[in-house]
Specification:
By secondary structure, this protein is α+β, with helices and mostly antiparallel strands. It contains six helices and 15 strands. The chain has a four-stranded antiparallel β-sheet. A four-stranded antiparallel β-sheet has the order 10-11-13-12. A hairpin with a 2-residue loop joins strand 3 and strand 4. Helix 2 (57-67) crosses helix 3 (75-90) and helix 5 (171-182) packs across helix 6. The radius of gyration is 27 Å and the shape is elongated.
Length: 261
């Protein structure tokens, strides 16, 4: 079962974790792809043939058990981890190196991650035929509130080429979130992001890029200051007392600028 950007996968249970509750897919995928802490990806050989940049199914099961801090990796736990691997595979995160229909197995079998930004990642099929998802202004506002609320797209301070960009998010991660939340293709998710940018929900951190499915930083737009009216000001009466002009709402008021020396 899938719940927004979360996949039924893990829940704390003492000092270990059960592989049958909810986990943030984005966090799992980011960690899985991490060169230092993720699954080992390298060129591998089998029967004199080299398979470029792939990983072993058995090693992914081991990695998942470690990621979820399973202290007692019984056969049943390995089966649960294998089932989770299959769900990730069904989402399009990876596929067998030669047979895209081959199921995931806890064995010495080679799999390859989908390229970041491809339409296959996170279950977003490249076939966009029939996608007619449009949002009213109210629906878009609700989607934005969910997207940038708790459990939504991660907003944090980020660095690029020695420069710090406060409180921003990565465009490709926003696309991931939209794909999972709305069950749409990546091109459709990008189109939704473009509309959000057009209506000034967010902007590129330097104003130099349109919204794309790339490693680009965007930040929320600062809401424009509310327009002030005469009722927002105060003035002194003839006795020198401060008077709120809001008391004259609905009445005709003549404002005279009196110069004093």
């Amino acid at each position: 079962e899938y719940m927004g950007t979360s996949l039924m996968a893990a829940e704390e249970s003492g000092d270990s974790m059960r592989l049958d509750a909810c986990v943030n897919v984005q966090a799992l995928v980011r960690k899985m792809r991490d060169p230092a802490e993720g699954i080992e990806i390298k060129d591998r050989k089998y029967r004199l043939k080299t398979y470029k940049q792939c990983f072993v199914g058995e090693e992914l099961v081991n990695w998942l058990l470690s990621y979820f801090r399973v202290s007692d990796p019984t056969l049943a736990k390995r089966e649960e981890a294998t089932a989770l691997g299959q769900r990730l595979m069904d989402q399009g995160l990876f596929s067998h190196v030669t047979d895209t229909d081959k199921k995931f197995a806890d064995d010495f079998i080679f799999y390859r991650l989908a390229a970041p930004g491809s339409d296959a990642v996170y279950g977003c099929a490249a076939d966009t035929a029939g996608e007619e998802i449009e949002h009213t202004d109210e629906e878009l506002a609700a989607l934005v509130a969910e997207m940038f609320g708790p459990g939504g797209v991660e907003i944090s301070d980020r660095r690029w080429r020695l420069r710090k960009y406060p409180q921003c998010f990565i465009a490709s991660e926003a696309v991931d979130w939209l794909c999972l939340r709305l069950h749409v293709s990546r091109p459709k998710a990008v189109a939704i992001g473009e509309r959000m940018q057009d209506v000034e929900v967010f902007e590129h951190v330097t104003g130099s890029h349109d919204f794309k499915d790339e490693y680009l930083f965007f930040r929320m737009c600062t809401p424009p200051a509310a327009e002030q009216t005469l009722a927002d000001f105060t003035a002194r009466d003839l006795d020198g007392n401060e008077v709120a002009l809001s008391k004259y709402l609905g009445r005709v008021v003549i404002v005279v600028n009196v110069a004093s020396f």
